[in-house]
Write a structure and sequence with these properties.
single chain, 404 residues, Metallo-beta-lactamase, Chain A, Rossmann fold, seven-stranded mixed sheet
Length: 404
C-alpha cells in the first residue's frame, strides 16, 4: 500500500485507475509561472484481460514515487504499453526508469514523440507511432488515438476509450491547483479560474488550434464523452464535461464573461499609483468589476494570475512608467506576454508617466496594435497629474466604457 501523502491512487471507472501526485514543492511551473496553489500530475492505468496500459507518467525526478505507486497496483513487468500523449517531461519523465525495469514495454505516441523520447532520455525503446484515428482493441475496450497537434506541442495526441466514453487529454482541459476531489461532477467558479490560468499560461500561444481540434475530438467521439481525464487537476465527469467544453471555447475565443476590467501598472515613485486609484474608483462607480495588478517597490503581483485574468476580461488598462527611455522592464515583459498569449482582441487604454522624456506611448501603441489589440487611447503624463489631465483620463475612460 502506498504511504506517500502526496500520492493518490483511485479508480476513475471500470478497470481505469488514476495515479496522481500532488506537487506542492514546485513554485514556478515550467520555471516561469507562479503557482502557490500547486499542481498535480495525473497518469492513468487501464487493466483489461491481463493487459496493462499506462497513459503518461509524472514529472521527471519523481521516479521512486511513481514506481511505488504503480507497483501497488501491478507488477511493472506486466506493463505492456505506455501511451505518451505529449513528451514534455512533466508527463514523460518516468519513461526511462520504467523502460529499464521492463525493456519489453512498447511505447505508443505520435511519430514525433519517438524522436523526442530518444533525445530526452537516451533510450531506444520499442515504439509504435499511432496514426490519427487509429484504434487499438484490448479485450472489451477500444482505444482511439486522436492527433491534436499544437495543444500545446506538435506531438500532442488524446485517447478516447470506449465503451466507458473516457477521453484522456494530457494538458488539454488541465488546471492548476490541487483539487480535494479526484473527480468532480460540477465545475465551481474558482476551478474555472484555475483552468483559465492554466490555459492562458500554457496553451494561449496556440489558441488558434483549439477550436478546430476541439471540434475534431467531438466529431470523432460522436460527442459521447462522459469523462475527461487531464494530466493536471481534477477528472471531469457528468455536468462538468459539457461545462469544460463550453468554457474552453470561451477561453480560446477570449469571450468576456462579465464586465471585468484588468488594471496593470508599474510605479517606481508613486506617480502612477494616484492615477490608477482614480481610474479604479471611476470604473467601480460605473459598475465594472476590477482586478488590479501592481508592480511597485512594495508589491509584485502574480504574473501567471494576471495573464489568466485578462483572457476573458472586457478590457485592459496599462499604467507604464518610463525607464531608461523604454517601458519599465516588468511592464515591457508583461506587454510581450499579452501579445504572445492573448494575440490581440481586447481594448486597451495606455497611461504612461515620464520624467524627462516622453518616448514610450508611441512605441507601446504600435506594438499592441500590430498584435491585434484595439488601443482606445494613450495618455502621457509628466510627473504628478493635473486636474486637466484627470479630466482627459475621464474622457478616455468613457471611450473604453462604450467600446463595442
Amino acid at each position: 500500500m502506498n504511504k506517500d501523502a502526496n500520492v493518490i491512487i483511485d479508480k476513475v471507472g471500470r478497470d481505469l485507475y488514476i495515479l496522481r501526485y500532488n506537487d506542492t514543492d514546485t513554485k514556478y511551473f515550467e520555471a516561469l509561472w507562479e503557482i502557490p496553489e500547486g499542481v498535480t500530475y495525473n497518469a492513468y492505468l487501464l487493466i483489461e484481460d491481463g493487459t496493462a496500459i499506462l497513459f503518461d507518467t509524472w514529472k521527471k525526478g519523481l521516479d521512486s514515487e511513481f514506481v511505488n505507486a504503480l507497483n501497488s497496483i501491478i507488477d511493472i513487468r506486466e506493463l505492456k504499453y505506455i501511451v505518451i500523449h505529449h513528451t514534455e517531461p512533466d508527463h514523460s519523465g518516468i519513461i526511462k526508469t520504467l523502460y529499464e525495469k521492463n525493456p519489453q514495454i512498447t511505447i505508443l505516441g505520435s511519430s514525433m514523440a519517438n524522436k523526442l523520447i530518444r533525445s530526452f532520455y537516451g533510450i531506444n525503446p520499442r515504439f509504435k507511432a499511432v496514426s490519427d484515428g487509429e484504434v487499438l482493441t484490448i479485450g472489451d475496450y477500444k482505444l482511439t488515438f486522436i492527433h491534436i497537434p499544437w495543444l500545446h506541442w506538435p506531438d500532442t495526441i488524446a485517447t478516447y476509450i470506449s465503451p466507458i466514453n473516457t477521453l484522456i487529454t494530457c494538458d488539454v482541459f488541465g488546471a492548476y491547483s490541487i483539487p480535494k476531489s479526484v473527480i468532480i461532477d460540477d465545475i465551481p467558479e474558482d476551478y474555472i479560474v484555475s483552468m483559465r490560468k492554466y490555459f492562458t499560461n500554457i496553451i494561449g500561444f496556440y489558441r488558434d488550434n483549439v477550436i478546430k481540434n476541439l471540434d475534431k475530438v467531438l466529431s470523432i467521439t460522436n460527442n459521447k464523452i462522459e469523462v475527461i481525464a487531464p494530466s493536471h487537476g481534477a477528472v471531469l465527469r457528468g455536468n462538468a464535461v459539457g461545462r469544460a467544453i463550453d468554457v474552453y471555447r470561451e477561453f480560446a475565443l477570449k469571450i468576456p464573461r462579465d464586465s471585468k476590467i484588468v488594471i496593470v501598472y508599474s510605479s517606481m515613485y508613486g506617480f502612477i499609483d494616484s492615477i490608477m486609484n482614480y481610474i479604479t474608483q471611476v470604473l467601480n462607480n460605473w459598475g465594472f468589476r476590477i482586478s488590479v495588478y501592481r508592480f511597485t517597490d512594495k508589491e509584485r503581483s502574480n504574473i501567471g494570475d494576471l495573464i489568466g485574468d485578462v483572457n476573458n476580461a472586457f478590457g485592459i488598462v496599462l499604467g507604464i512608467s518610463t525607464y531608461d527611455t523604454e517601458p519599465f522592464p516588468l511592464m515591457d515583459y508583461i506587454i510581450e506576454l499579452l501579445i504572445r498569449k492573448l494575440r490581440g482582441g481586447k481594448p486597451i487604454l495606455i497611461i504612461t508617466d515620464y520624467g524627462w522624456g516622453d518616448v514610450v506611448p508611441k512605441h507601446v501603441k504600435t506594438r499592441l496594435e500590430k498584435a491585434g489589440f484595439t488601443v482606445i487611447d494613450t495618455v502621457s503624463i509628466n510627473g504628478q497629474p493635473t486636474e486637466r489631465e484627470f479630466g482627459r483620463i475621464l474622457g478616455v475612460l468613457q471611450n473604453l466604457k462604450n467600446f463595442k
